[in-house]
Specification:
single chain; 137 residues; mainly alpha
Amino acid sequence: MKKTLSYFSISILVANIIMLILNLILYRRLNLTYGFIKVEIGSVIIALFITLAILIYKREKGNPTANTIFGFLVILPSLLVIRNLYGIVIFRFSFVLYIVVLVVAILYASIVIYINKQTKMEVQNLNNLLDTEDKDK
């Protein structure tokens, strides 16, 4: 439960920062303002999706590749939340949604690659420790 709340707090921080930047851009460029409650509810929903994706990705059960794919699929509805929140202001053309999905996929893939490298390094360090321990005996 502690880890879930930790993931959620980090996710809501990231979601609020993204929404703040998005609102600043819309205010500066188009002079549009959105209500705080509406934006905050949207960021909480997005944070829930991100937290669920992290929990699915870090799950020990099941195939790691399937967990990675399911984690990405869980993040995709957050784009629909952003689309419903801002309407046609941001997503005036449908290709913008595809570009955003592509950017999210690239970010997700880079995070997965980084975590994979960390895990391999940790396994290698543990194997080295076991080899050192076996040589001492």
